[in-house]
Design a protein that fits this description.
Layout (H helix, E strand, L loop, with lengths): L1 E6 L2 H10 L7 E6 L9 E2 L7 H11 L3 E4 L2 H6 L1 H7 L4 E2 L7 H4 L1 H11 L6 E4 L2 H8 L6 E5 L8 E4 L2 H12 L11 E5 L4 E10 L3 E3 L4 E2 L2 E3 L3 E4 L4 E4 L6 H20 L6 E11 L2 E8 L6 H5 L7 H9 L14 E8 L16 H5 L4 E5 L2 E4 L2 E4 L3 E9 L2 H14 L13 H7 L15
Parallel strand pairs: 1-2, 1-4, 2-3, 4-5
Antiparallel strand pairs: 6-9, 7-8, 7-9, 10-11, 10-16, 12-15, 13-14, 15-18, 16-17, 18-22, 19-22, 20-21
């Protein structure tokens, strides 16, 4: 099977790494890829949003399956375009990708499916938003409706912050067209769980749950990022909770889409939050999560390429996912200035030493090749993942891997999976309010 992976981040390196172990993989291409994918796939100089060039390449090279990593090409309609030309794609259609491309649409589908989520209101003008804020309580969340490169979610502690967020959307146009519509949403507190589900339009296969860390600094301090680390599985979120999430969240939303003649085929990422009032949906993504993928896939004891091919063909029925008994911890190394900015061109040293450690895999994200060297090329640079018998061992190995790697201004969080270690030891519960709503 000739496979094209679209994207160039840590998630895509993890996908390529997993596909490369499949006996079905004849040749793997990655567009555009990074310094990590270059060692196990053929990087091609095509951007992930250049749909005509991707189509031309896949047609010319006889690609059997295209797996789309980022959300933007899915929202642009890459799956529809490829399928119109007889090319098989693992990824949802443009209509289905609206679950991530439009927060209003996602809320509508949650409502249609009777799935619990935060209360919200929709606004198309600054005046409408201001009128709603006049009677609001804080904190609250303001979100640009469309894709805003991870910057369109603003947590507002008071009225001044909310007014500034509305101005950013409607006046300063900081989010461009993504901010044409915004939602003002209830602020939810609790423990989050990321559940990635493979869907084929009829059947669905959940992968092991993960938790990630959004804030840049330890103790969940500082601004939000794309994710500074993750771990898998999640102590306390066992098979019974997974089954219930499928029954009460995933299946109702997929059914609501079907009522609109929208078939969901690809990965559905359900971002759940366990609150005092029960389990609610924070968001949906229409692709593999990052960095959750880097923590989930090292534990997969099976052929991911075979699973993705089955999903793309509508043939997931009967497919099972098996898991290694070890836990996995993933620590992200970010560049100087992240998340406000990123520093490019800094030499990265120690990659071979880290990768040589037992059960440690270094996934590249924002990296590039410069001559024979690997240099930084983005905000999140690397994700160091480690397997271990228990979270304590996995965590120790991950941070040992991090200790071998250096580049100017490298940023990491020191507390990734610390709570998982304590939860697994019975010292704390990640879900002190229980899992009401998932019974």
């Amino acid at each position: 099977m000739r496979v094209l992976v679209v994207g160039g981040g840590g998630r895509e390196h993890a996908l390529v790494h997993s596909f490369a172990r499949s006996p079905h993989a004849e040749r793997i291409f990655c567009a555009p890829g990074n310094a990590g994918t270059a060692g196990i796939a053929d990087n091609i100089g095509v951007g992930s949003e250049d749909l005509p060039a991707l189509l031309e390449f896949a047609s010319r090279e006889g690609v059997d399956l295209t797996v789309v990593g980022p959300e933007a090409p899915l929202v642009l309609g890459i799956a529809d375009l490829f399928e119109e030309h007889g090319l098989r794609v693992f990824g949802p259609s443009q209509a289905a990708a609206r679950l991530e491309g439009s927060k209003v649409f996602a809320k509508e589908m949650l409502g249609a499916g009777g799935v619990a989520t935060g209360a919200y209101s929709r606004h198309e003008t600054a005046a409408s938003a201001a009128a709603h804020l006049a009677g609001a309580s804080y904190p609250l969340v303001i979100k640009a409706d469309g894709l805003a490169a991870g910057k369109g979610v603003l947590i507002c502690a008071d009225a001044a912050a909310a007014e500034a967020a509305v101005e950013a959307c409607f006046v300063a146009r900081e989010f461009g067209d993504a901010g044409d519509v915004l939602i003002i949403e209830e602020y939810l507190t609790g423990a989050e769980v990321s559940l990635l589900v493979l869907c084929d339009g009829k059947d669905a296969l959940p992968l092991a749950p993960a938790q990630d860390y959004k804030r840049i600094f330890a103790g969940d301090q500082g601004p939000n990022t794309g994710g500074m680390g993750s771990y898998c599985p999640v102590p306390g979120f066992e098979q019974k909770a997974i089954d219930a999430a499928m029954e009460h969240v995933v299946e109702p939303v997929v059914a609501a889409l079907r009522k609109r003649d929208i078939v969901y085929r690809g990965v559905l990422y359900a971002g759940l939050i366990v609150t005092e009032a029960g389990v609610k949906v924070l968001e949906f993504n229409c692709r593999f999560g990052d960095p959750e993928t880097q923590a989930v896939l090292p534990r997969l004891d099976g052929d991911l390429l075979e699973m993705c091919a089955a999903a793309s063909a509508g043939a997931l029925a009967g497919v099972k996912a098996a898991w290694k008994p070890q836990e996995c911890v993933t620590v992200v190394m970010a560049s100087a200035g992240y998340p406000a900015s990123s520093h490019k061109g800094d030499l990265i040293e120690g990659l071979d030493a880290a990768g040589a450690l037992d059960d440690v895999t270094v996934f590249h994200a924002g990296t590039a090749l410069r001559g024979g060297d690997v240099v930084t090329a983005g905000g999140r640079v690397l994700a160091v993942s480690a397997l271990g018998h228990g979270f304590a061992e996995a965590r120790e190995r991950a941070y040992e891997g991090v200790s071998h790697i250096s580049f100017d201004g490298a940023q990491t969080r020191a507390d990734i999976a610390a709570r998982a270690v304590r939860a697994a030891a019975g010292e704390i519960s990640l879900f002190p309010h229980g899992l009401e709503g998932l019974r």
